[in-house]
Design brief:
Helix content is 43%, strand content 22%. It is built from 18 helices and 20 strands. Mean pLDDT is 83; it is low at 1-8, 370-409, 467-472 and 481-491.
C-alpha cells in the first residue's frame, strides 16, 4: 500500500472528492483561500478521455451559477461559450410556436455544454499552485475522526492520504455520503420518478441552426415532453422525457417514426427520420432521482455539497445552479467564522439544508404541475357557457396568465429563483403566500362577476337559443385542449 506525503504542516489540507462541476469549482474556491487542495476523481481526466462517460444533458446557467463563477474569475469565460436563451419557445402539436419570456427584457439564461464547463473548471483549478488533481482514485473508505482516506487505483493498488477537511462532491450516489448513513440522526431519502430521459441531436441545416437559437424549445405533451437547447456548433441537444413504460413500448425504427409523427411531427424533418431511427436505440433511457439528506456535515471533518447533498430532478433548471451556490454560501460562512471548520460546518448545514430541500421540492412539484392546463380548460368552459361580455371581467387574470404577461401563479417565483439569490425556501414561502392572495382575489372577482352577470341577465334577458350549448360541444372543446401550452406555470424549463 502506497502512502502519499503531500500534507504540509503550515497549511490545512482540503480534500475534494469528485471532480465534476461542483467539485472542480470548489477546488477553485478553497485554493483561492490558500488551502492545500487535493481533488480526487474516480474517472480518468475528461480533458484527455476519448469518450466522456456520464450525463450530458445541456445545462441552463442562471444568476446563482454565474455569481459563483464570478467569485473565482470564471464568469466571463463561461458566458462567452454559452448561448443566451431569452424565452421558452412552446411547440404545439399543430406546429405553432409561442414564445414565453423568462423575465424582463434583456434577462436570459444560458445554454452551456456540461463537458466543456467541467473541463474549463478543472483547468482553472489546476492553475493554482496549491492544487493537485488526482484521477483514477476511487474512494473506498474514510475516517470522520482522523480524516484518513483510502483510494483504490486502477491496477489493484491502494493509496492513503489525510486531510483536515473532506468535501464530498461526488454526485447523487456519493461514496462520501455512505459514511454518513452509518451514523445516527442522519436523515436520508431518495425518490426515483417514473420518467426517464433520452438524448437526441438536431444537426445544423445548411450550416445554420435548424431552429431559432436563442430559445429553450419545449414540446409539452401531457405526461411527457421534449426540450431542445442550442450548442455552439449550431446543433441542438434534444432531451425526451417520458415514462419508462412509454419508452419500452417502442422497439423498432418504424415505431419511433410513428411515435414522433403522432406527438412531435414538426421535429421529424428537423432531426431527420434516419437519425431518429438510429439514435433512439443508441442508449437506453436514463433514470432521474431526487435525493435529500441532513445534516450536511460530520463534526469539523466532512461536508457534502452539490448532488451528494441534494440531487434534484431537472425540471426547474436549478441543479447545477444550486450546487454552485453551495460553494458561495460555504465561502460566505467561512468569512463569517474566520475559517474555523468547527463553527463553519454546522452553520452551513443550518443555513443550506432548508434551501436545498426547497428547490428539490420545487423541481419535483414542477414535474407534476398542471395548473396552467386546468386554467385553459376553465377558460374554455366558461367562455362557451356565458357570453363574452359577461365573462370578460372574470377572465382578466386568466387571460394575462395565458399570455405569459403576468404569470401570477409562477412568474415571480421563477424570477426570484432564476434572476436573484433570494434564498430558495424564502422564494417558495413568498410564492405560497402570493398564491393564497391570488386565489382569494380570483374567488372574489368571480363572485362579483357572477353577481353582475345575473343582474344583467335579469335586466336584459338574452335569447335562450343563442346561449344554448350542448354538453357534447363542451366536451369536444375540452378534448381539443388535451395538450397543455407549457410544462407548468412555475416552470423554469
Amino acid at each position: 500500500m502506497e502512502e502519499s506525503a503531500l500534507r504540509r504542516e503550515d497549511k490545512k489540507v482540503v480534500a475534494v472528492v469528485g471532480a465534476g462541476l461542483v467539485g472542480a469549482l470548489n477546488a477553485c474556491f478553497f485554493a483561492k483561500r490558500g488551502f492545500e487542495v487535493e481533488v480526487f476523481e474516480t474517472r480518468e481526466d475528461i480533458r484527455k478521455a476519448k469518450v466522456v462517460k456520464g450525463r450530458s444533458i445541456n445545462l441552463a446557467l442562471s444568476h446563482r451559477g454565474r455569481t459563483a463563477l464570478k467569485h473565482v474569475g470564471m464568469e466571463d469565460k463561461i458566458v462567452s461559450k454559452g448561448i443566451p436563451m431569452n424565452a421558452r419557445m412552446i411547440h404545439s402539436l399543430s406546429g405553432k410556436q409561442s414564445p414565453i419570456p423568462y423575465g424582463k427584457k434583456g434577462q436570459y439564461i444560458l445554454s452551456v455544454d456540461r463537458a466543456n464547463l467541467n473541463k474549463e473548471l478543472l483547468t482553472a483549478a489546476e492553475t493554482y499552485p496549491n492544487t493537485k488533481l488526482n484521477f483514477d482514485h476511487k474512494l473506498q473508505d474514510w475516517s470522520a475522526e482522523t480524516g484518513l482516506m483510502t483510494f483504490a487505483r486502477p491496477h489493484g493498488s491502494k493509496t492513503q492520504t489525510q486531510a483536515d477537511l473532506i468535501v464530498g462532491c461526488d454526485g447523487a450516489f456519493s461514496a462520501v455520503r455512505k459514511q454518513f448513513l452509518r451514523r445516527s440522526r442522519f436523515n436520508y431519502s431518495q425518490t426515483y420518478i417514473p420518467h426517464g430521459y433520452m438524448e437526441l441531436t438536431m444537426r445544423p441545416r445548411n450550416g445554420e441552426f435548424a431552429m431559432k437559437p436563442n430559445y429553450l424549445h419545449i414540446w409539452p405533451r401531457n405526461t411527457f415532453m421534449m426540450i431542445a437547447l442550442p450548442n455552439l456548433d449550431k446543433t441542438f441537444t434534444c432531451t425526451l422525457f417520458m415514462p419508462f413504460e412509454e419508452f419500452e413500448k417502442i422497439s423498432t425504427g418504424d415505431e419511433v417514426i410513428e411515435f414522433f409523427q403522432k406527438y412531435f411531427p414538426d421535429a421529424i424533418p428537423l432531426i431527420g427520420a434516419a437519425t431518429l431511427r438510429r439514435d433512439y436505440f443508441r442508449l437506453p433511457a436514463q433514470a432521474m432521482v431526487s435525493v435529500k439528506c441532513s445534516p450536511y456535515h460530520i463534526g469539523d471533518k466532512c461536508v457534502l455539497m452539490g448532488d451528494a447533498a441534494h440531487a434534484v430532478v431537472p425540471f426547474y433548471g436549478q441543479g447545477m445552479n444550486a450546487g454552485f451556490e453551495d460553494c458561495i454560501v460555504f465561502d460566505e460562512i467561512m468569512n463569517q467564522f474566520n475559517e474555523d471548520f468547527s463553527a463553519v460546518l454546522p452553520e452551513y448545514s443550518r443555513v443550506r439544508v432548508p434551501d436545498d430541500h426547497a428547490i428539490a421540492d420545487l423541481a419535483m412539484y414542477n414535474y407534476v404541475e398542471v395548473i396552467q392546463f386546468l386554467l385553459h380548460m376553465l377558460h374554455m368552459f366558461f367562455s362557451n357557457v356565458f357570453s363574452p361580455a359577461l365573462w370578460s371581467s372574470g377572465l382578466l387574470v386568466i387571460h394575462s396568465l395565458e399570455a405569459g404577461k403576468t404569470h401570477s401563479f409562477g412568474f415571480f417565483l421563477v424570477f426570484q429563483v432564476t434572476f436573484t439569490r433570494t434564498r430558495y425556501h424564502v422564494a417558495v414561502e413568498r410564492w405560497h403566500w402570493q398564491d393564497k392572495v391570488i386565489n382569494r382575489g380570483l374567488l372574489l372577482g368571480a363572485v362579483g362577476a357572477a353577481a353582475g352577470g345575473f343582474y344583467l341577465l335579469i335586466k336584459n334577458p338574452p335569447d335562450i337559443n343563442k346561449l344554448a350549448i350542448t354538453a357534447e360541444k363542451v366536451w369536444n372543446k375540452m378534448a381539443a385542449l388535451k395538450t397543455p401550452p407549457s410544462v407548468g406555470a412555475a416552470s423554469q424549463i
